[in-house]
Design brief:
Layout lengths: L17 H9 L13 H23 L15 E2 L7 H21 L2 H20 L21 H7 L1 H6 L10 H4 L4 H11 L5 H12 L2 H13 L1 H13 L10 H20 L5 H18 L6 H14 L6 H18 L3 H13 L8 H16 L1 H8 L4 H20 L6 H4 L4 H5 L2 H7 L4 H18 E2 L3
Antiparallel strand pairs: 1-2
Helix pairs in contact: 2-17, 2-18, 3-4, 3-11, 3-23, 4-10, 4-11, 9-12, 10-11, 10-12, 11-22, 12-13, 12-14, 13-15, 14-19, 18-22
Length: about 475
């Protein structure tokens, strides 16, 4: 057989397949793509996980020498199994938030969107709290540590006498009462007076008030940061793990009242000077006073956010109506016999001789931040790793400063998953950077927050 020139199947000596072999020898090696480095978001989440492991190990070692009074370190709650007959309801609500939330946030008229976050937060927080039983919604109010336990004293001596002797008798009251002004006790008594007595009605009111916080934050964000930023943050404000303590923990009420106080000042600072701005500033001061008579720990948040807004918008004159509104709302407390500074001094005394005295300052300086990062949720932590967008920095940065002040003060050793709840919605605004960078991943980050919420509720038994 005569070899034909260029026969692809044979070599020069008639060897079959040699031409293909030579071409393979001269062919370029396959192009290899180097592995992509992990994004900052992944490193941020790994850092929180590593920090949690370190805090856990160090905490277990510290237990050999001192009681930390913790359960599932760094949380105050203990280990438990919270899955029950109503767990599918919570899963369904969470799934609905993930699938429908971003679309509704983009399409709905803003007013409807802001209002919708209210029932959505109610549904999400209530379904999570009631995963085992709907009776769990009112359970925290009946704890021996909670405010309801002092109502018999109020009935016996009267509200006026209770307030007048509040600081003197503080040491005899439950731990939550010792750590706070009497605002929540007054609210519970007021509900009784208007015919809404009992843990069930109280739980409903607390949830409804606490769930309004996202509405206030959205209104402030639109006024100060723009409507686009507010829309992008809306689903995360509803679906974050912070809802674990909306139903039915008093700190959810404090978070909402503080949010409305700040929003009133924001709206006053972003409109033309006039009667409307004055009224809003007065309301902001009044709500701020109400919030401070619920918890002493809101001073850094209110001062940082209100002060920043007034300075940035150059509305110096608002200081006067804000202060006047706060003073006006404080007068009834003073007339009733309770002076805020005396209450703070008494609380500091009983805090110093409580379990806090056995909790090491340096350990909780770190453990507090780890617990807070977990409650912020994976989306917020990931967003912080990319920096703070300029349009929301005016609200996020002062809140972070307030968190730092609260941590350094040493007055919040542990339990910050609920104590620092008022800070969470404002820091959550940082997610707008995450949404803008990778909008296709929004549902994945929302799912991460929902999943973490369900996980924490399923395996941690919260004492509140």
């Amino acid at each position: 057989m005569i070899e034909r020139a260029g026969d692809p199947g044979r070599g020069r000596a008639g060897e079959p397949g040699r031409g293909r072999a030579e071409r393979r020898a001269w062919a370029l090696p396959p192009l290899t793509v180097p592995p992509r480095p992990w994004p900052r978001e992944a490193w941020a989440l790994l850092a929180v996980l590593a920090a949690w492991i370190v805090v856990l190990v160090v905490g277990l070692l510290l237990y050999l020498v001192t009681p930390l009074h913790l359960g599932v370190i760094p949380f105050h709650g203990g280990p438990g199994f919270g899955i029950g007959i109503f767990t599918p309801v919570a899963i369904a609500v969470g799934a609905l938030l993930v699938t429908a939330g971003p679309g509704l946030a983009a399409r709905l008229p803003f007013g409807r969107l802001a209002l919708l976050t209210w029932p959505a937060t109610i549904a999400w927080s209530a379904s999570v709290a009631g995963m085992q039983s709907w009776l769990d919604l009112s359970g925290p109010l009946q704890s021996r540590y909670d405010y309801y336990q002092v109502l018999p004293d109020v009935h016996r001596v009267g509200l006026h006498e209770f307030l007048a002797t509040y600081t003197e008798r503080l040491g005899a009251y439950p731990i939550h009462v010792q750590g706070h002004p009497p605002g929540m006790v007054v609210l519970l008594r007021a509900l009784e007076v208007i015919g809404l007595g009992g843990p069930g009605w109280a739980a409903a009111v607390i949830i409804v008030i606490g769930a309004s916080a996202p509405v206030a934050v959205l209104l402030a964000a639109r006024a100060l940061c723009g409507e686009t930023a507010a829309r992008q943050a809306a689903p995360f404000l509803v679906a974050g793990p912070w809802v674990l303590f909306v139903a039915t923990v008093a700190d959810g009420v404090y978070a909402a009242v503080a949010a409305w106080a700040i929003t009133a000042v924001v709206l006053a600072a972003t409109r033309r000077p006039g009667a409307g701005a004055v009224v809003l500033a007065l309301l902001g001061g009044a709500f701020g006073s109400l919030a401070l008579h619920g918890t002493y720990g809101l001073v850094p948040l209110l001062a940082a956010l209100m002060g920043t807004v007034i300075v940035v918008r150059r509305r110096w004159w608002l200081v006067v109506p804000v202060a006047l509104g706060g003073a006006t709302a404080t007068v009834p407390w003073v007339v009733a016999g309770f002076w805020w500074l005396d209450g703070l001094d008494a609380t500091r005394h009983w805090y110093a001789v409580s379990s806090a005295s056995e909790r090491p300052y340096l350990y909780f300086l770190v453990a507090n931040l780890v617990a807070f990062a977990i409650i912020l949720g994976p989306g917020v932590v990931a967003a912080l790793s990319r920096g703070i967008p300029r349009d929301v920095a005016v609200l996020v940065v002062p809140t972070l400063v307030a968190v730092a002040v609260a941590d350094l003060s040493g007055l919040s050793k542990a339990e910050v998953e609920r104590i620092w709840l008022p800070f969470v919605p404002w820091i959550t605004l940082v997610v707008v950077g995450l949404v803008r960078r990778r909008p296709e991943h929004v549902r994945a980050w929302l799912a991460g927050g929902v999943g973490l919420t369900l996980l924490l509720q399923s395996f941690v038994t919260w004492p509140w």
